[in-house]
Amino acid sequence: MKKTQNNTSGAALKTAFLHTIPILTGFLFLGITYGVLMTTSGFPWWLPVVTAVAIFTGSMEFLMVSILLSAFNPLSAFVTALMVGARHIFYGITMLPKYRGMGWKKYYLIYSCCDETFSINYSTELPEGIDRGWFYFWVSFLDQVYWVGGVALGGIFGSFITLDTRGLDFVMTAMFIVIFLQQWEKDRSHIAEYIGIGGSVLCLLIFGPDRFIVPAMLVILLALTVGRRKLEPAYPAASANAQDNGGSAATETASAAGDAQPADADSLPEREPGYTAVAAENTRQSNADSPAELNPGRQEKETNCRKEDEKYE
Amino acid sequence: MNDAMIMTTPQAVLTIAVVVAATLLTRFLPYIAFPEGRKIPKYVLYLGKVLAPAVFGLLVVYCLRKTDFFAAPHGLPEIISVLAVILLYRLRHDMALPLIGGTACYMILIRVM
């Protein structure tokens, strides 16, 4: 981060733009839809723009249309927004170590973290020499510009758009599928992936499409907590450190990616009191399930394994 | 603000403010709980590692949540397009091909099926 800021920021902007092209497509389309929906519901064109900037969660903004057209009930609006926004808590927990030490950028990164921004910022393996902080910033900023721009276009010119764009929003679905597949290939174990899909489908069947997110999050959290003993050693390589340095050589560790990372955030889990006995018992039962920290040789093997995976990518 | 509105403009402004506050709260909560300088508990770090793969699964399901398997065309456009995305991704490991191919496939299928 001591390099000249303009170069650092410019290179990161270019990389960020290339990574957000799918979001540009999806957000313009969805944003226009939201702008049109708001204006055809009788609201002035600037209202969707203001809410797009301030709320910046597509799903909540679409709900805003019906909330504003019903009776005044701020408590219900508050609870709805908490439920719809609850998944941000998961994004926050995941990005916690990555967004540390970002200075002024951190506040904007937190405020502007939506599904798409989170997915890109979490999953992108940065090429060497790209500043992590600036990349995160530009991805967040560009995504917000795409969204607000789309909403403004829809709000102002909505009535003139007659192109049949039905189904264009599938680009978002496709992007999440690809990010899911990339994650799948990165991980040796896929238990967390199964928990995510299984818990979500289960809750979708029980609670229906409009109410399944929060129950699904609770099911996922519960399953990940109960399964920690099995999962923790299975996902060692997913640490912030290994993720960010991508497939590049260890020499990069000292550069931008490394210095923003507090030592405690990416150190391997130590044994906890009470955990040791169970873990040791586990080792006796089946060697394959032994936590990595009890077996240094295995740790090395996992690192190599991961490097192989990255080469494949 | 809008003739169809039941609430007054100040009430509408308050409603929007409340929604903004709730959304900000969900975003800032983890960072308020674990500010810079405070050590992040092991359990939270662990969650930070395993939540992402699970959440990507949740997001895929979320995107497809409105799929209706009981009415024609029984979710076939979704199923075929998802398979197309997976196949195209396996074919060449990049983002562009599966996204363009999958979306084109979906847009055609929902028009012809």
Quick summary:
With 313 residues, chain A is an all-alpha fold. Chain A has helices at residues 5-40, 46-54, 58-69, 74-85, 87-95, 105-111, 115-123, 132-157, 170-186, 191-207, 213-226, 228-234, 240-244, 256-259, 263-266, 275-285, 296-312. Chain B is 71% helix and 0% strand.
Description:
The complex is a heterodimer of chains A (313) and B (113). Chain A is an all-alpha fold and 313 residues long. Chain A has two domains: 1-187, no CATH class; 188-234. Chain A has helices spanning 5-40, 46-54, 58-69, 74-85, 87-95, 105-111, 115-123, 132-157, 170-186, 191-207, 213-226, 228-234, 240-244, 256-259, 263-266, 275-285, 296-312. Chain A has 17 helices and no strands. Helix content of chain A is 69%, strand content 0%. Chain A is globular, with a radius of gyration of 22 Å. The two termini of chain A are 28 Å apart. Chain B has 113 residues and is mainly alpha-helical. Chain B has a domain at 69-113. In chain B, 71% of the residues lie in helices and 0% in strands. Chain B has four helices and no strands. In chain B, helix 3 runs antiparallel to helix 4 (96-112). Chain B is flat, with a radius of gyration of 22 Å. Chain B starts with 8 loop residues before the first helix and ends with a helix. The model of chain B has no long low-confidence stretch (mean pLDDT 93). The interface between A and B is large, with 104 and 72 residues.
Radius of gyration of chain A, in Å, reads 22 Å
Sketch the major β-sheet of chain A.
none
Q: Outline of chain B, from the CA principal axes?
A: flat
The chain-level structural class of chain A is: mainly alpha
Defining traits:
heterodimer, A: mainly alpha, 2 domains, B: mainly alpha, 71% helix
List the helices and strands and how they pair.
The complex is a heterodimer of chains A (313) and B (113).
Chain A (H helix, E strand, L loop, with lengths): L4 H36 L5 H9 L3 H12 L4 H12 L1 H9 L9 H7 L3 H9 L8 H26 L12 H17 L4 H17 L5 H14 L1 H7 L5 H5 L11 H4 L3 H4 L8 H11 L10 H17 L1
Helix pairs in contact in A: 1-3, 1-8, 1-9, 2-8, 6-8, 7-8, 7-9, 10-11
Chain B lengths: L8 H25 L8 H22 L12 H16 L4 H17 L1
